[in-house]
Amino acid sequence: MSGAEQIALPFPPEPSSVRTMLIGRWQLLTDKILPDLAQHHHWPISANHCFKRVCLDANFGVPWHEYVNKPATRHMTDTQLKHAIATAEQVIETPALLFELNTRSIQLRRAMHEQS
Questions:
Q1: What angle do CA 74, 79, 81 make, to 5 degrees?
Q2: To the nearest 10°, the Cα dihedral for 86, 88, 90, 91?
Q3: CA torsion sign, 14 to 19 to 25 to 26?
Q4: Cα separation of 109 and 33, whole Å?
Q5: How many Cβ atoms are within 10 Å of 111's Cβ, its own excluded?
Q6: Are residues 63 and 57 in contact, defined by beta-carbon separation less than 8 angstroms?
């Protein structure tokens, strides 16, 4: 290949295999595993978007959409996504943690609403 030849790249660029793996893990945790555990643990939330809210708010310390554009998985860094996954996995390991994180998320959102 001469220096003048260019390699055609797909547009948009393909996500890295690490990124794909992280998104897959996040979706499995929040779309399947946590909702399936909700009934068993009598959690106050059961919808996938609620688990995403709780985990993301816990990681950002503010309502997540104040920090990252929607959709979150498209705009978060790999590091932010890893932290969100770690939070979801902590909830699986310590189910009582979900109550605390959900309460904190609701309080963050109320405080944000009251300020506006």
A1: 45
A2: 170
A3: negative
A4: 25
A5: 11
A6: yes
Cα–Cα distance, 81 to 75 (Å, whole number): 10
Q: Specify whether the CB–CB gap between 95 and 38 falls below 8 A.
A: no
DSSP for 4-60, please give it: T------SSPPPPHHHHHHHHHHHHIIIIIHHHHHHHHT-S--SHHHHHHHHHHHHH
Question: If pLDDT is split at 50, 70 and 90, which confidence band does 114 have?
Answer: confident
> Using omega within 30 degrees of 0 as the cis cutoff, is the peptide bond preceding 12 cis?
yes
pLDDT in tens, 3-38: 445 555 454 545 678 999 999 999 999 999 999 999
Q: Which of 92, 107, 104, 90 is nearest to 41 (CA)?
A: 92
Side-chain-side CA neighbours of 95 within 13 Å: the count stands at: 13
* pLDDT at residue 2, rounded to an integer: 45
Please state, in angstroms and rounded to a whole number, the distance separating the CA atoms of residues 27 and 113: 28
